[in-house]
Every structure is written in structure tokens, then in C-alpha cells.
Amino acid sequence: MSLFAIAFKNVKKNVSFYFLYLVSVAFILTVFFSFVSFSMNGVMLAKISEDGRVETMSRTIAVFLMAFVLFYMSYSNQFFMKRRMRELGIYALLGYRKSAMLKLLAFENVLICLLSLVVGIVLGAAAHQGIVSGVVGLLDLSIDRSAVPFLNGKAVLFSVLFVIGVIAALSISNWRLLRKTTLLHMVRLEKSGEKKMKIRPVSAVIGLILMVSGDVLALDSRRGKESVWSKIGVSPIGLLMTGLIVCGTALFVYSFLPYVMQKLKQRERLLYREISIVAIPKFMNRIRTNAKTLIMLSLLSAATLGVFGSTVLTSYYPVAALTRIIPSALEFKIERPEQAEQAILALNRTVGEGGFQSKITELIKAGSTTASLPPEYSLAKEKGREPGFELMSSSDYASLLKQQGKKTKDLLLDDKEAILVKYRPDPKRQHVGEIYSLSLADNRTVDVTVKRITLDNPIGFNNSVGTLIVSDGVFRQFADSGLPVTRVMSIDGPGLRDSKEAYEALRPVLGDNPYFASVYARTYEITYSNSSTFLLLGFLTVLFFIASGSILYFHNISAVTYDHDDYTILSKMGYSRKKLKKLIHRQILVLYSIPFILGLAHSICGLFCYKALLMDDVLGQSSKFILPIALALSISVFIYLIYYVVTKRSCYRIALKN
Which stretches make up the ABC3 transporter permease C-terminal domain (predicted)? Predict the structure, then answer.
């Protein structure tokens, strides 16, 4: 019988064992082929990339994708090699040379990769078409769909060459393993790795301290200018934080977990139970061989959850922040007297009379002689904004909030009171009770005391970032003094925040007005500029999920397979199937929980650090950050739960078969 025939029979005979491997490799190649097809889609790139940024990102992410696919397939190949060492030992006893065994393994890899590649190309082409349809629909693009073929010839050729390269790399890896492995090691390779673990309390404590220090360092970024990130620098602290987390996690798994298990083992009341008496010593016995996998999975889970969470957060928050950046659906500063009337006429033709509300608000720029002023007074000074408050009357403020559908309670002001509209929340400085001396045109001053502060800005930041609400009497006093008055028109109505028609109706009238702001246009701009980034990061996230879930699956299957005889002995000792399932469930749960909990803790700290360093918090609402993070983590838990259930059922079937 030829080697190829033996390889074909091996794959066919073990199809149930290879099934998830085939599925996972096919999924990974599906993601890879859809990414390659998208990055080589000239029609789409011409539409969404004006400055070559997407092409550059695609090339960068392609390197990560190829490295990750190679890593995953190498890991899986090593797993199956160890699983089949006894079988290879029998081949050696039958007289097969190592070169013949290498060819046999290469044939099997070719069969598996070829089948996965075919599935990956077909599903990847379909996924690519779906992605193109989604991007076209999301960004409202106009493209010639016939110019986007179902199968991109260049993408197919690139993927085939890449898989050939992967097979060559796997063959070299197999040859190195076979060359240094003796016949005896082939038979006992799995058992030879299980050496007794030394308990090192000092290393355990150091590992815990390093790991916690890394996460605390990430959370320190929330202190803003007082944090070490601001005082020392993002790059050095970022490297230090990464080093602490990586080293701490490694020592935590190598030393702290065995130390804890040793302590549990010494507690007789806990140890001498039907499940614990087996599970704890088995974990202690396997921790050395499991450690590298647990460390790698912990860091991989942290990266997966971190990338996924930051992608969801970044795509959600800028859109949510538009409620403050542009509080009305449409807004513009009136630069010419006829602009307001022209805008109303244009909307009457598009939306219809009564389909919207409009209000013109007057703002007066006023300086102050007070020494200590809020940061909003001089905000954006470097961008050319003249320092000062934009005064608004309390009646205009109440009327505009009502038009925008916001609450209008507690807005009564006397002539000595004011409401300060904050640009961003500042818990350390509340400003209430502070007195500001506002300058009139003739250099006289009017003192007002801050009655309260608010984040309910009625005018967009494009037109006012230092809004101070004063009484109608004080506002008239400033208007009469001769200070220049700015007029801002705000337009609201049902569905106007998402109305493309309303925005396009005003463009001919306000196209040259730099202060024209539209929620629809801004939302589209955010989506357009970030869609390619989110899409490319999405490819990485999907690959991370598939890889981490599959590695956990293979690792548990391997452990249960080698413990099959132990379960048989336990069954003869009186352990029922229910208790054996409980024992297996406990073992699987531990191997899933450790990397997931560590990865979850690191990713949450990392997301808070990401938010503090890279995102401008103008909403001041924790729920706006927690909601997308919770959503991303919930989806992650659901995906891991699916892998967990599949793993548990497969392990039950292997362990309990006669």
C-alpha cells in the first residue's frame, strides 16, 4: 500500500477526530481568503481609501494574519504529532524509515490543508461578497457590482501559495521533531513531560505582585495628568505595563497556581472528597505540561478581548458623543441675514412645513477679569478661538433645551447667578460658588456666581465651547453695551438626526458655511473614516476567537484521551457515569476558566487605560463606556461558552466509551 493511500485512510478513519481541526482550519482560511480578496478589491479600495491608508493597513494586518495562521497551524500540527507518536513508533517497528513517516505526515497535511483550502476559498468568496454588500449599504456607496468577481484570481493564487508555504513549514517542523526523537521517546513522549512540580512560594508571590502591578499601572491612567503615564510618558510606561503583565502571568501560572493547589491539597476536609481527591492531584501532575499553553491562552484571550472590546467601544462612543457635540439635528452660525430664511425654505420643500422646529439663539462673547477661570474660557485657544464666555440668556436656554427634547427644570436665575456649561466633566473642580467678573464693552464689570454646572450644552461645540447661562436681564445689559452678537440657528424634528435628505437640502444654502453642522453628516463621516479600520480589526478578532477556542478544545481532548484508562479504573472503583462526568466537567472548567479570567482581567484594565489615554470623555456617563464593553465581553463569553459545551460533549464521549 502506498504512503498516500495510508495517509488517505488515516484521515478517513479519524475523520471524527480531525473534524474540528478541519472546521477550524477551514474557518481560518475562510477569514484569510475573505481578507485577501477584500485587500485586492480595487473597486472597493478606490471608493473607501482616498489617501492609501487602507492599503497600508491591509498590508500591515496581512503580515499579522499570515503569522497568526502559521502559528495556529503549527500549534495544531504539534498537537497531532504528539497525539500520534505511539502510532509513528509502531511504523518504526514495522521498518518504516523516518523519511517515509515524514512523507506520510506531509501527505496528510496536504489532504487536510487542501480540503480546508477549498472550503475556505468558497466560503471566503461568499463572505467577501457579503462584506462588500455590507460596506456598500452602510456607506451608501455606488459601485458596479459586476466589476467585483465572486472569485478573485489573484487572491486564489496568493492563498494557494501561502498554504503551500505553510505545508512546507509544517514538514520542516515535523522533520526536526522526528530527527531528534528516538523510538522509545515516540512511545513515551506524552508521559515523559509529566514531571513533579516544585512549589516555589517566593516565585508565586512575585508573580502575583507583578501581574497585579501591571493591571494597577493600566488603571493609573485614569488619574489623568497626575498619572505616571502623563508624567513619564506613554511609551515607556506602556512597555513596562506589558512586561509586568507578561512576566507576572507566566509566574502566576508556573508558581502561584501550583502553590494554591498545594495549599488546597493540605486541607484534608477539602481534599478527601470524591471529585477533589482525583481532580486536585491530576491538576498538580499536569500543571508543568499545561503551563505554557495556559500562559499563551491567557495572553491570547487578553488580546482577543482587548481588541474586540476596543473596536466596539471606538465604534460606539463617537456616535453616542454626538448628542453633545451636535445637540440639534442641524445647526449653523448665521453669517449672512438671508441664510436663515433660505434654510427654512429648503427644509419646507424637503421635509414639509410642520416637520421640524427651528430657533435662532443669540450669543455674546464676553471677557473676564477673574484670575481663576474654568478651562472652557480659553479652550481651543491654540486653534484661533478668542478666550471668553459665550453668554446665553436663560429663556433662550430653556426654549432650546425644550426643542431638543431635554429636561428644563431649575433654570430660574437672578441677575447675580449663572450656569456654567462644561465641555467635559471635572469631578475635582465643581466651580459652584465661584464668582466671575464679566467685562462690558465700556470696561465695567458684572459679577455673577456659578449656581450650578451642567453638561447639557444647547449649542454644538463647533459654535460654542464656553457657554455661560445668565439671566435675561444681565444678557440684555451686555447686548445693550455694544458687544458683538452672534446668531446660531438650531433645527430639530422627528427623524432629522438621521435624515440625509434634510442635510442635502441645506448644502446648497450652507455649503460654504464652516459652522454648518449636521448629525447625519458627522455620523456618516465617523462611519466612513473608521469602517475600514474596524473591518480589518474584525478579521483579526475572528481569527483570535477561532484559534483560542480551538486550542482549548484540542488541549482538553488530548488530556481526556490520555486519561481514558484512569476513568476506566475509577469506573471499576464505583464511580458512576454521573460522577465521572462531574469530574471531567471540573477539569475542563478549570482549563477554560484560568485563561479566560486572567485574559478578562487584563483586557478590562487595558480597556480603561485605552479609554483614559485615547478617548475624549465629553459625555461624563460611565454607562456610555460600560455598555459597549459589557456588550463585547458578553459576546466573547457566549463564543467561549459554545466552545466549552462542544468540548465537554466531546470529552464525555471519549472518556466514557467502553
Answer: 60-181
